[in-house]
Amino acid sequence: MLEDRTTAASSPTEWPAAYPPGYAVVDVETTGLARDDRIISAAVYRLDARGEVEDHWYTTVNPERDPGPVWIHGLTSEALEGAPLFGDVAEEFARRLEGRVLVAHNAVFDWQMIAREYARANREAPVRQRLCTIALSKTLALPLPNHKLETLAAHFGVVQRRAHHALDDARVLAEAFRPSLRAAAAGGVRLPLHECRPLTEWYDRPAPLIGRQGGGHGGGGGWRPARKRPACPYPNPGRYGVGGRLKQGMRVAFSGDTSVERELLEDRATEAGLHVSTSLSRLTSLLVTNDPDSGTSKAVKARQYGTPVVDEAAFGQLLTDVEPADG
After folding, report:
1. Which own/partner contact pairs does 196-199 have at CB distance under 8 Å and 24+ positions apart?
2. Which residues contact 107 (CB under 8 A, 6 or more apart)?
3. What is the DSSP letter of 221?
């Protein structure tokens, strides 16, 4: 089925010279979605310049804490008890990422989880660029009803065997990425690559050593953010009116991958007098996301609450003319 969909027309002999020389298709399963959550399994499919599989690798990881939603990923505390710590697999993981573009479905999540694990190990992940397959499917205007991995897989006739198992999710994504990459090359499409900058949110001193049985959650108190945003000095004037102007004090939340690093977007919003919120509630004035139909908690809540949504480009334009707060 897959070969039928990947025709010669989508596998050009003249490959775009600007395309990367290789890719690392990655999936990580985690204890949750927060900043202090941990990786419990990881898989990497290494692909050559045209998306052909070179090899694959998989490992479980002892998260040094409760494994989280076992009903989703199936990895219990007992199953992870003898697994290596992230520091034990960091070198091998890095070897498989180095010199390649990291490819993932909702890539900003996988990248941030990986980068934080390396930060905890006092190392830097050897990743300079990432590519989100959600963004690529949008660039290609694939006729998908939503942007779930299973939907992308079905479009290319890829069969999922074990959903939420890192190795199978990475395999499925690699098989769906190959025809996507070839279609992009055939059309001379510019790939939606994003720079991966080193994290600045973690520590200026080494994290403490934690034993396997230590149950450390977020480093046992040995870490601190590099900086804390100042509180917004303006009252919340309410929701953003579609077609209108932003007003100082409005609560703005961000969700999903962005072309500008998230931290820089948040800095610009703060400098404009907006309140940057890490969560979304009924008080949120605006959600900024390039994928409003995604299943992220913020996007779901925005739909439930009727919160106005704009994409990154529109938000950038709104930032150029923010209305001053009253008084």
Report:
1. 196/102, 196/111, 196/115, 196/125, 196/127, 196/128, 196/129, 196/130, 197/261, 198/115, 198/124, 199/112, 199/115, 199/116, 199/119
2. 130, 131, 132, 133, 134, 135, 194, 257
3. T
Q: Which of 260, 239, 266 is nearest to 251 (CA)?
A: 239
Model confidence at 249, pLDDT cuts 50, 70, 90, reads: very high
For 43-75, the pLDDT digits (tens) are: 999 999 999 999 999 999 999 999 999 988 999
Q: Considering the entire predicted model, what is its pTM?
A: 0.65
Q: Which residue has the tokens 């998989």?
A: 58
Phi-psi category of residue 163: left, alpha or beta, with phi > 0 → left and psi -120 to 50 → alpha: beta
Question: CATH number of 2-195: 3.30.420.10, 3.40.50.150, 3.10.129.10, 3.30.750.24?
Answer: 3.30.420.10
> What is the Cα–Cα distance from 121 to 113, expressed in whole angstroms?
13
Q: In sequence order, what E strands does the chain have?
A: 22-30, 39-48, 53-60, 101-104, 129-132, 193-195, 251-255, 275-277, 286-289, 309-310
Residue 222 has pLDDT above 70, yes or no: no
Return the pLDDT at 148: 87
Cα distances (angstroms) measured from residue 241 to each of 253, 254, 304: 15, 17, 17
Is the predicted pLDDT of residue 225 greater than 80, yes or no?
no
User: At the topology level of CATH, where does 251-321 sit?
Assistant: Rossmann fold (3.40.50)
Rg (CA), the chain: 21
pLDDT bin (cut points 50, 70, 90) of residue 212 is very low
Domain ranges of the chain: 2-195, 251-321
